[in-house]
TrEMBL record:
Pfam families attached to this UniProt entry: BPD_transp_1
CDD domains: TM_PBP2
Protein name: Carbohydrate ABC transporter permease
Compartments (UniProt record): Cell membrane
Keyword Magnesium: no
Residues of the ABC transmembrane type-1 domain: 69-259
Keyword terms, alphabetized: Cell membrane, Membrane, Sugar transport, Transmembrane, Transmembrane helix, Transport
Family to which the UniProt record says this protein belongs: Belongs to the binding-protein-dependent transport system permease family.
Native source species: Rhizobium pisi
Amino acid sequence: MSTRTLSRIGERGFILVMLAFFLLPFLWLASTAYKPSRDIFSIPPKLTFVPTFEQFATVFRLFDVWSLVSSSLLIAGGSVVLSLLLGVPAGYALARSTSRYAIAVAYFFMAIRMVPAVAALIPFYLMMRDIGLLGSWIAVVLINAMLNSAFVTWMMFSYFRSLPKELEEAALTDGCTLFGSFWRVALPAVRSGVVASTLFCLMFSWNDFLYPMFLTRLDSKPISVALLSAYGTKDITWGTLGALAHFSTIPIVLIVLFLNRYFVQGLTKGIH
């Protein structure tokens, strides 16, 4: 057997091991949603079982699932829209700035997104209480938009900076306004960057737990907070957790898989 063949077998074997390492816990959690309660902790574990929707029936009996999903969609969607409206123009303005501190400012925006969530929780909680938005999903949208728009600014700065200025100068020569050259030339040219930024913001907001936990009421909490209900004082109801996890993970996984190539490009593109 040639060295090249052995190397290929080794690479594929390593990939399979890593996939098993990361996916088996999720597969186990997903399978618990279809197991009868008595089989979840059976010793030895049952690899074959008769699927049941008992856990899903329990979830729909105990939770208003569609309200939880709707709240998640409102929070994630509102955060994404606000983040793009603020971050994309800011990234463009920063990329076209002639200041020598432009890159430093871009990294400052990135540093804002790195602030620990709990550090911003208390002042933002007090602020939302004083303006009367505490307990609504709008409060979560605003704080997520504040953090995510800083990330979008940093990311779009990189994309716009890599775009040749001559394209916009040609548009200006043809009679476009400054806004027209941005809207008709620059923005379509960095479409992949906008999609990648959207996906990052969507994942950040969809998976957010801390801010919705403390800033929303019971009727406006997203599904990420509802997952905590599976953790009791004495045990964890794994079947309920597995069933709820379906509604928490499937939408975001489908979106990321559908737009995967833009997501990978966004991960690999850096400031230069």
